[in-house]
Amino acid sequence: MSKFKERLGKLSPKKRLYALETLPGHLAQSVQGERLHQLLTDFDFIEAKLDAVGVQALIEDYDLARVSDVLLSEGQTETLKLIQGAIRKSAHVLERDKTQLAGHLLGRLLDFEIPEIQAMLKQAKQSKDSVWLRPLRGNLERANQGALRTLVGHISSVTAVAITPDGKTAISASGDETVKIWDTESGTELRTLTGHTNSVTAVAIAPNGKTAISASGDHTLKIWDTESRTELRTLAGHTDSVNAVAITPDGKTVISASEDKTLKIWGIHSGRALRTLIAHNGSVNAVAITPDGKTAISASHDNTLKIWDIHSGRELRTLMGHTNPVKAVAIAPDGKTAISASRDKTLKIWDTESGKFLRTLTGHTGYVSAVAITPDGKTVISASWDNTLKVWDTDSGKFVGTLTGHTYGVTTVAIAPDGKTAISASYDNTLKIWDIHSGNFLITLTGHTNSVKAVAIAPDDLIAISASKDNTLKIWDTENGREVRILTGHTDSVSAVAIAPDGKTMISASRDNTLKIWDIHSGKELKTLIGHNSSVNAVAITPNGKTLISASRDDTLKIWDTNSGKELKTLTGHTNSVLAVAIAPDGKRAVSASLDCALKVWDMDSKTLLRTLVGHNSYVTAVAIAPDSKIAISASWHKTLKIWDIYSGRELRTLMGHTHLVNAVAIAPDGKTAISASSDRTLKVWEIHRGQEVVSFVGDYEFHCCAIAPDGVTVVAGDRSGRVHFLRLEGVSGGG
User: How many Cα atoms within 13 Å fall on the side-chain side of residue 528?
Assistant: First the structure.
């Protein structure tokens, strides 16, 4: 126990709260820099402040250390910046679940060999007196890399974002039919605006910051008062989805772009359509207005951009050059150049006066959905369906860096008026705030370059193997989390991996329609099994190691002889892709799971179907069998897991708690606990007998797979970003 915790324990609740609220400020004002540094590196203080006052107040304490009168060394200042950065990056998690504090500080700071940080993390580990999942290495985004903060609240894709002129507020639009107002400093959701009856596709804020306009798939625009947060009026006139909206610099006129192939110019105060602009022969996806308010540029599905005179509504010129639909356009602050973004995966820079094409920016691997220019005109940020944003130098067109962190396509990006930060929105339902000039663009990723689809742990606990969408497998040392070897040979995503009981060989399954048998020690490919006519989604090995079962998108399972690689039998019965298969420890039964929403139990001796387990009302993604060979647990896209009696086919209970698709499940060797991995970014530990959630760990990305080692406490999981996580289940028997 730290001296701070000891002193705090002697205070009354009222005095304790007062001390937590005021002590950091008092130390800063009285120029006690050393004591302030000690306080802000004390886990007991961090935990107590978070619990009593909340995450934003805690984050703000670290800003006190930056005032000029508090004399701290460069190293001390950097230490506090790292801790603050870790807390800020985890704020959206800690606001909902304060028990994640220790795990998130370890996950973000464990790799920093700074004495004060390591001492704080030691405190964090010692503070936990209950069951928890402890990261064995830095398994989350580092404190100084990636996004500054994540904004969570929308329940569907975030389609648009705009920032107020003072930079203090952001407004987002979503497929969940809502508009949300956010405090950009704290990341707090201030208000949700409802009224649209379809996806909200775009949002713009007037120059005075008091009015916002949203566009929707319901064919309308709505004008909102951002101060009272009320709807002022609805603009109706388009005959199809409204895709974009822009406001003139004087705040008097609105221009909308629609799927109906037109643009409309509206009086913002009257709400009346002043004129309709017709010339595109495809949906109009975007519109931007020049700083002088005289012209507008539209981007269309017809692969062109058009420049318009706003006053007359006359088309001035057409910009041609893209080979696919143009999704976005931004105009530089000087009004002389425009930058367009296209489904052809490029951006193009244009001279707005002559209409001349100047330069093409290439680098994205998916279509480019949005583009924004900094207020000084020197930097461009693009957003893409390759899940990234890219930063470019405007004058040279040179690529500067990549912002990674979103797990689905990035739909839009807005830059704050000070030009220092940007906010992106994504199909992953989140917004992220970025420091544009930090230089911390690419996250150093320990893992795969694409989603981890499966993990397995060897019988001796010493190694783990991961399979990835990047077409490779990796072998890991479970003790230190280091990569031992990479295995290449598959020509498409590797969907599954299983390790033989002797720990000497492993089998992988791939979207290239094959399975491969590998020598683990040498990493040598021994043989390829060919027989399925579609993706192989899963593989399991019998306890004696002599046969294996594969599950495929071709709706079948196949039984193979491990030694010869010969196909022994094809099992049919599922009416859709078979996603998973598990073999009971006694070798008598196998259970498969499918997109047909059912599980099937198979007799391994006769190789026949025994029964079908029906109960899930969505795809069944995974299945695991308990050590007693009597119980199976299945995972579903319906956010649930189910426990089954294999022999009777009876459903015993349903496990509820996940808020998104459950992708994987593993059962501990003692049969008492299970771990599930979900797209809600959590790993959950369950007590099987009671069907209750014991604890969860929240990651940065969707978890796709998980495994429990024979020791019963080492957990390996893989996520959408390519990370392989090594955690220890603490506080359970054998957990240490």
Answer: 10
Q: In the structure encoding, which two tokens stand for residue 250, read together?
A: 């004087």
CA distance 558 to 571: 6
Instruction: Find out whether 342 and 367 touch, Cβ atoms under 8 Å.
Output: yes
Concatenated DSSP letters of 255-275: EEEETTSEEEEEETTT--EEE
Out of 446-455, 538-547, 615-624, pick the least confident. Answer: 446-455
Measured distance CA(306)–CA(261) in Å, rounded: 12
Q: How many helices (H) and strands (E) does the chain have?
A: 9, 56
SS3 446: coil
- 30 DSSP assignment: T
Band of the pLDDT at 135, cuts 50, 70, 90?
A: very high
In this structure, how many other beta carbons lie within 10 angstroms of the beta carbon of residue 281?
11
pLDDT, tens only, 194-218 = 999 999 999 999 999 999 999 999 9
* Closest by Cα among 221, 188, 190 to 206: 221
Distance between CA atoms of 204 and 212, rounded to whole angstroms?
6
Length of the chain: 736
Q: Which of 543, 534, 486 shows the shortest CA–CA distance to 510? A: 534
The Cα 456–Cα 549 span in angstroms is 16
| pLDDT band (50, 70, 90) for residue 439 | low
Which residues are CB-neighbours of 170 under 8 A, at least 6 positions away? Answer: 151, 161, 162, 163, 164, 181, 182, 184, 414, 423, 431
Q: Which of 638, 645, 675 is nearest to 660 (CA)?
A: 638
Closest C-alpha among 497, 482, 585, 488 to residue 536: 497
For 619, other C-beta atoms within 10 Å of its C-beta total 18
E strand residue ranges, 553-681: 557-561, 567-571, 578-583, 589-594, 598-603, 608-614, 620-625, 631-636, 640-645, 651-656, 662-667, 673-678
Amino acid at residue number 385? W
Answer whether residue 65 shows pLDDT above 90. Answer: no
pLDDT of residue 650 exceeding 90: yes
3-class state of residue 15 by DSSP? helix
pLDDT of residue 735: 44
Euclidean distance between CA atoms 414 and 420, whole angstroms = 11
Rounded Cα distance between 120 and 115, Å, is 9
**AA letter at 705:** C
CA distance 150 to 91: 8
Give the whole-number percent of the chain exceeding pLDDT 90. 89
Residue among 56, 75, 52, 50 at smallest CA distance from 65 = 75
Amino acid letter for position 75: G
Dihedral (CA of 12, 13, 15, 19) sign: positive
Measured from the Cβ of residue 28, the count of other Cβ atoms closer than 10 Å reads: 20
In contact, 507 and 479? CB cutoff 8 Å:
no
Q: What are the tokens at 570?
A: 């094809």
- Closest to 484 (Cα-Cα) out of 502, 504, 505, 462: 462
What distance in Å separates the CA atoms of residue 342 and residue 243, rounded to the nearest whole number?
15
Query: What's the CA gap between 155 and 199, in Å, rounded?
Result: 12
Element (H, E) at 236: strand 230-236
What does the pLDDT look like over 313-325, one tens digit per residue?
Answer: 999 999 999 999 9
Q: 448-496, pLDDT tens digit by residue?
A: 989 999 999 999 999 999 999 999 999 999 988 899 999 999 999 999 9
Which pLDDT does position 239 carry in this prediction? 97
- CA Rg, the chain, in Å? 28
Say if residues 67 and 28 touch (Cβ distance below 8 Å). yes
Q: Which of 334, 361, 341 is nearest to 413 (CA)?
A: 341
Exposure pattern of 434-464 as b/e (b: 16+ CB <10 Å)? Answer: bbbeeebbebeebbbeebbbbbbbbeebebb
pLDDT at residue 356 is higher than 60: yes
Question: How far apart, in whole angstroms, are the C-alpha atoms of residue 617 and residue 652?
Answer: 16
- pTM of the entire predicted model: 0.90
Q: What is the DSSP string of 270-294?
A: T--EEEEEE--SS-EEEEEE-TTSS
